[in-house]
Design goal:
51% of the residues lie in helices and 0% in strands. By secondary structure, it is an all-alpha fold.
């Protein structure tokens, strides 16, 4: 899941810190559930909400805001 988040970020032209934050969030969400795919996030909004409610980044990065064209 971490790798998928990182690849997604890279393919969508995220800066490296943003892509790594995305990868960490996807990996963490997946690891918090039982089963291989149960915890895989379904939407970017779900990932962004997780990033904002946890301390994954020192500043609130709008990396998953649909308004920024990513």
């Amino acid at each position: 899941a971490y790798n998928a988040g990182l690849i997604y970020g890279i393919l969508h032209d995220y800066e490296l810190p943003e892509a790594l934050t995305l990868a960490n969030a996807v990996g963490a969400l997946t690891a918090m559930a039982i089963g291989a795919t149960t915890g895989v996030p379904g939407t970017l909004d779900e990932i962004n909400e997780f990033i904002l409610r946890t301390d994954l980044c020192s500043s609130q990065i709008a990396l998953l805001n649909p308004m920024n064209g990513r």
